[in-house]
Amino acid sequence: MPARFDTLIREVSLYDGSGAPARLADVALRAGRIEAIGAVTGVARESVDGSGLALAPGFIDVHTHDDFAAVMHADMAFKLVGGVTTCIVGNCGFGAAPFAAAMVMAKTLHPKLDLPPWEGYAGYARVLERNPPGVNVGLLVGHGTARLAAMGPGNRPPSGAEMTAMKAIVSEGLEAGALGLSSGLVYDPGRFAATEELIELASVLRGSGALYATHMRDEGSRLLESVREAIRIGDAAGVPVQISHHKASGRTAWGLVGESLKLIEAAQRRGLDVHADQYPYTAGSTILSAVFRDGKLRGVLGDLRPEDVVIASTARHPEWEGKSIAALAGAMGRTAEEAAARILTGDSGVTVVLHAMSEEDVRTVMRHPSTMIGSDGIPTLEGKPHPRLYGTFARVLGRYARDEGLFPLEEAVFRMTGFPAAKFGLRDRGVVKEGAHADLVLFDPHRIIDRGTFDEPHLPPDGIEAVYVNGVKAIAGGRPTGARGGRVLRRASMHAPA
Ligand SMILES: [Zn+2]
Questions:
Q1: Other CB atoms within 10 A of residue 206 CB
Q2: Beta-sheet strand order (sheet of 351-355)
Q3: How many angstroms is it from 244 CA to the middle of ligand 1?
Q4: Which of 137, 183, 204, 474 has a CA positioned 20 to 30 A from the CA of residue 237?
């Protein structure tokens, strides 16, 4: 009897996620796993001619804000079209629990959000398991959310009882399988936390393998102090560190990444498990209220020029989307600061795109071996979100690896598959090997490229032919099938693989 498979992809150029060069192979899938690799004989329900195409592990987006999108837009088509099969949610201190605090913070991104409540991170995971999303989801506990729930929005240190309450939230998340704790030290209320508070909370993770991921206090002219703080927290708490969206923001900070990378190298030499992630663009994106503070368009994201700050989404005034603060100020006959204040009046859910980085810095960070890829995409699907939401992985593969030769394609694949899977503790993911989960992306290495622009961000990338999530075909011929094969991914060291 011939072997029977669900899917057999023949004669494909296989990038296995380890960083090894491609090899020609057949890859057979059965029951959500990779069953055989090499010269495979047998029959399959679906047979795919892989000649001329590349097969890689599905991309792991280590930096997303898709906690609520995974519930509201469960098909997750906006991620799948870019080859993403796993999203790590809960970044920048914004977690999915406790529910009431999570809703307050989520409304800065989704002003119209209205969801039935869940109990803790375990309850959130159950919601995803009852109504599975199109991609796998791994979660981080959000420090900002925990702080808001335990002690309200105030700018003060926690009392002993409040610290105990925050620790209980972190523990509950870890019990529910969270991969780590995130902080967002430019946002309310995370920015009110002293380093010692973060050390104490991160210490709850010690020994679990879970990591501390941080949107640091300042990515502008105080970038180096911020990296030192992240490293200090990792050292003192005894936990791995992930520096989120590593960059130097604002012209006066350009070039500092040369030094921040050296700080990471030095900490690694001392034995700290510290890495970073990056999105491949010279523009960032965040909420306007984090950029415009105390009447000024400057600060923790560097010195920003009004022409460099562009409205991405605002529910009350969609006609402002795509326009810069400078242009809106001109139209209103006001100064840039007056215009920013007016835009925020009565509407805290305003997101912006910031054209604030140098191309040279982006390349310097990307080339460095400490860097993996994460989109930081903001799923405000109705406005003009930063095109990184869709294009991040195709852009690294097509533009930076293939067209610019920044690194070989197998290295680019490693930075978005095997490397993040190892860092975040995702067992049998991020690699194509027998027995691994069948998260796969089939793409044309000669065609793959991002297409979205700041004016037209919703264009999906080109060259992605098929995507499988746990063996379920979610993209066929470049289009979403609507099939949802995602699972909640819990820490490998605590739980048996899903
Ligand atoms: Zn962030």
A1: 11
A2: 283-287, 351-355, 309-313
A3: 6
A4: 137
Mean pLDDT, rounded, of the chain: 95
pTM attached to this predicted model: 0.96
Beta bridge partners of 313: 351
Distance 488 CA to ligand 1 centre (A): 22
Give the tokens for residue 473.
Answer: 């075909």
pLDDT digit string, tens, across residues 48-92: 999 999 999 999 999 999 999 999 999 999 999 999 999 999 999
- What is the whole-number distance in angstroms between the Cα of residue 368 and the centre of ligand 1? 20
Task: Report the separation in Å between the CA atom of 259 and the middle of ligand 1, taken as the mean of its atom positions.
Answer: 21
Q: Please report, as a single letter, which amino acid is at residue 44.
A: A
> What spacing in Å lies between the alpha carbon of 376 and ligand 1's midpoint?
7
What per-residue confidence (pLDDT) applies to 109?
83
Question: CA-based angle 420:422:424, to the nearest 5?
Answer: 65
Q: Report how far ligand 1's centroid is from the alpha carbon of 246 (Å).
A: 10
CA of 65 to the centre of ligand 1 (A): 9
The token pair at 53 is 């195409």
Tell me the per-residue pLDDT of 285-329, one tens digit each, with 9 for 90 and over: 998 988 888 888 766 667 788 999 999 998 889 899 999 999 999
Inter-residue contact 334 to 342 (CB < 8 Å): yes
CA atoms of 412 and 15, how far apart (whole Å): 10
> Which residues are CB-contacts of 496 (< 8 A; sequence separation ≥ 6)?
none
Instruction: Tell me the residue type at 29.
Output: L
- pLDDT digits 0-9 by tens, 205-263: 999 999 999 999 999 999 999 999 999 999 999 999 999 999 999 999 999 999 999 99
d(CA 134, CA 379): 15
CA of 187 to the centre of ligand 1 (A): 9
Report d(CA 364, CA 367) in Å as an integer.
5
Ligand 1 centroid–CA 94 distance in Å is 9
Question: How far apart are alpha carbons 321 and 22 in whole angstroms?
Answer: 43
Among residues 245, 255, 249, 250, the alpha carbon closest in space to that of 278 is found at: 245
